Amino acid sequence: MEELKKDRLLAVVHGNNFRELGGYQTNSGKTIKYHKLLRTGHFANLDQKDLDYLTNYGLKYDVDFRTKKEITDTPDKVPAGCKYEWTPVFSEDLTNSSKGIDDLETVAQNDAHWGYNHMLFAYEDMIVSDSAKKAYRHFFDLLLANDQPGESLAFHCTAGKDRTGYAGLLILHVLGVPEDTIIADYLLTNETIADFVQGMLDDAKKAGNNDNVLQAITDIQTVHKSYLTHAIDVLNDKFGGIDAYLHNELHLTPAEEEKLREIYLED
Questions:
Q1: Which of 41, 166, 207, 243 would disulfide-bridge 16, Cβ 3.0–4.6 Å?
Q2: H/E element, 55
Q3: For the segment 169-187, what is each residue's pLDDT rounded down to a tens digit?
Q4: Domains of the chain, start order
Q5: What is the pLDDT of residue 257?
Q6: pLDDT (tens digit, 9 = 90+) per residue, 89-114?
Q7: Helices (H) and strands (E) in the chain, counts
Q8: Mean per-residue pLDDT for 16-22?
Q9: Burial grade of 43 (CB within 10 A; 0-12, 13-18, 19 or more)
Q10: Would you say 154 and 183 are in contact if contact means Cβ atoms under 8 Å apart?
Q11: Cβ atoms 163, 71 nearer than 8 A
């Protein structure tokens, strides 16, 4: 996992979880191109060197899945030559990724499982809600538009783990990346944000929060394999699988899927 993290992380200093998806192998033996597809956290804290780095990297699309409140509180700083696209998955921030410790203390202090159960609910909403379906369909439209060589599309939410992780599941599945690789990439977030999460836990302990709150922070600010497998189970149980969901709910056509493979894969 440590070697995987080193190969994936971009040299962005003032942003969390900026990762390259190029290099992953597909079931057909092809490989995702580099400088085409990035998954990241938000762009709000980037400095000019980070912005210049992303411009030079070829970033042409910044796809933001966050809520209106999130983008108002921490708007993205957009690199030169990059098109900003806001496509909110939730009508509110159901992952609580932008909420403070005080909010968690109120709702989680008497329930050690609150954070985990809330995340399962959030993942279900990412699949079944009309706002999510609209957002992810627009995501695929932008992926299809990103058809010039050496030009990258970055997709993100706040921490780049849940709404972003589910988007990663969808596009990597379309490209034919094996499920175990998709899950490994999803779990890589825990390595990239470990210091940030530990800092939150340390602050919460100093503030006197109980173990239930600490567990809620951990469950909300990290990813569990079971979050993504729960999403896959919902897709299977409610929609007949990922492919059926993509075709029937997001209206992604076979021709569009083939075009995506032409854009993002190489021999």
A1: 41
A2: helix 48-57
A3: 999 999 999 999 999 999 9
A4: 2-266 (3.90.190.10)
A5: 98
A6: 997 666 555 444 456 777 888 888 98
A7: 13, 7
A8: 96
A9: buried
A10: no
A11: no
**DSSP-assigned letter for residue 75:** P
Measured in degrees and rounded to the nearest 5, phi and psi for residue 204 equal: -65, -40
Establish whether 82 is a catalytic residue: no
- In the set 157, 159, 167, 188, the catalytic residue is 157
Distance CA(254)–CA(241), nearest Å, equals 16
In DSSP terms, which residues pair with 64 in a beta bridge? 86, 156
The tokens for 257 are 């899927």
**Strand 37-40 relative to strand 31-32, pairing:** unpaired
Q: Which two tokens stand for residue 69?
A: 């409140």
Long-range contacts of 211-216 (CB under 8 A, 24+ apart): 211/112, 212/108, 212/109, 212/110, 212/111, 212/112, 212/114, 213/101, 213/104, 213/105, 213/108, 213/109, 215/108, 215/112, 215/113, 215/115, 215/116, 216/104, 216/107, 216/108, 216/112, 216/114, 216/115
DSSP label at residue 153? E
Q: For residue 67, what are its two tokens?
A: 């809520």
Residue 237 CB: number of other CB atoms within 10 A? Answer: 9
What is the phi/psi pair of residue 168, to 5°?
-60, -40
Secondary structure class of 46 (helix, strand, coil): coil
